[in-house]
Amino acid sequence: MLPTELSTIWLIAAGFLTVFCGACVVWLVQLAQYCRSAVEFVENQNKRAVSLRRIADLETTCTELLDSYNSLLDSHKKLRSRIGMRNIRKSRENGADLTPMSSDADKSAYKATLRAKLRSTGQLR
To answer: What is the rounded CA–CA span in Å between residue 59 and residue 63?
Structure first.
């Protein structure tokens, strides 16, 4: 009786061991799929991080260019003012009249003549 029961026990143990090994294989396949998808996810995130880094670099460059442009505008304004003052000094040395070119009365008279001219041509009602 012992030899038949022993073979039955070994047979049952081998069956459980086979089922357990099959479950382990299924679990390992699922683990490999998960690892593959994790690697793809990390690679995609790194690609995005590189593009975000590139955007940050471009933003920094644009900010630097804007600051340089603003300082260039300020320098240009100062130079124009300096040249204008030189021209005024030269005209004072030459004895030119520096009175304003037009006053408010001159402006209103000029506007009135322009309106009359435009009304006569029909461009203004």
So the answer is: 6
Does the pTM of the predicted model rise above 0.85?
no
What is the per-residue pLDDT for 52?
79
Listed by start position, the domains of the chain span: 2-94
C-alpha span between 16 and 6 (Å, rounded)? 15
CB of 58 closer than 8 Å to CB of 51: no
Nearest C-alpha neighbor of 36 from the set 44, 48, 46 = 44
Q: Which amino acid is at 52?
A: L
Task: Name the one residue in this structure whose structure tokens are 């012992």.
Answer: 2
Q: How far apart are CA 79 and CA 75, in angstroms?
A: 6
Q: Can you spell out the DSSP letters for 9-58? A: HHHHHHHHHHHHHHHHHHHHHHHHHHHHHHHHHHHHHHHHHHHHHHHHHH
What are the pLDDT digits (tens) for 39-50? 999 888 887 777
